[in-house]
Amino acid sequence: MKKYYLCGPTVYNTPHIGNLRPILTFDLMIRALRYLKEDVYFLHNITDIDDKIINKAIEEHKTEEEIAKKYEKYYLEQLNNFNIEKPTKIVRVTEHLQDLYNYIQKIIDKKHAYKINGNVYFDIMSLKDEYGKISHQKLDNLIYDELEDNSSLKKHPADFALWKETKIGVKYDSPFGLGRPGWHTECSCFIDKYFNGETLDAHGGGIDLIFPHHENENIQHFAIHNKEIAKQWLHFGTLNYKNQKMSKSIGNIIYPHDYLAKYSADSYRLLLFSSNYAKPINATDEIFNANETLINKFIGIWNKSQLENEHLEINYNKVNEIAVYTSKLDFAKAFKEFIVLSKDKNQKGTFFETLRMLGFAFINKKITTDNKKLYQQWKEKVNEKNYEEADKLRTKLIERKLI
Fold this sequence. Notes:
The protein is α/β, with parallel strands linked by helices. It folds into 3 domains: about 1-240, Rossmann fold (3-Layer(aba) Sandwich); about 260-365, no CATH class; about 370-400, no CATH class. Helix content is about 45%, strand content about 15%. The chain has 14 helices and 13 strands. The strands form 3 sheets. The protein has a 5-stranded parallel β-sheet, sandwiched between helices. The chain starts with a strand and ends with a helix.
């Protein structure tokens, strides 16, 4: 069984389409692996308690649970809207507090963590030769992201919180005191629990998570199991819009519901499939429109094939070849073969099977018997040279987006 993990969202606001890039890319990869008969266990987390959630709850005069549930619901709806297969298991922080207590205690017992008041910190210097291997940085050059009240008492500035004593918002009564778990500990705890400490085949997340998040995940796993947490790290590039990273302050954010009001989910899948997963995508309206046009072209080929009741052969070796490239996230080779197929009239069956393997939604839409009859009636009127009636039927076919 292949073991895959993808860092999920902290549910305190509405995600933009760039936030969907990691999980949709995972979807392409895992669909391809499963098509190749690989057994894949895909674990995905949702951070449903965090300082950002606490601050949002205070701002909106709501509970942290209300905030988290609201934005989690939206996120999960987008998985459905963008035809993303649900992970094997989705895990939430608030449902695994006891597991987190046990996990933190393991690190303390291994002498790699220490307490200060109601906080528990990881002791970086206890594994100084291992820390920095994910981000390929030296300890002395690292910039640390946490400045707690106890920072002056920590053994080293890079020591990060496994458990945080909090003064505002919801507090959990742990063996270490009232507070909440540290963000970096959640993912490594889930991986430890659901994969029994085994090394992942692949661990994914946004490129901004390399340091400190993934670095800190890895060192916690190493502290307990004396081995790295993953064989392969997959870090996904940003989705920029008009040459700028999507940002509320700039005002260039595109939310999923706004995207779907103008374009199809399949066109976004095509955008990611045609891009290097690790590099930024500099999207523009022209690029979005071009992808939508190409998807509509594919839909036209698919519809006509159904309307003509074409008998199509499938070259499964070619589909498997594209699946292998996709499973390795070698989208350049996969997309090249994909486009060649799309232009070959003798390979329609193979092209359609490839679309199905890659998770394009339109390929599962079957034309009804009534619409097929309407199409045949139109052809008959054309053959009879009854162009007036043929034009009426053709208008109906166009309205139904069949031709």
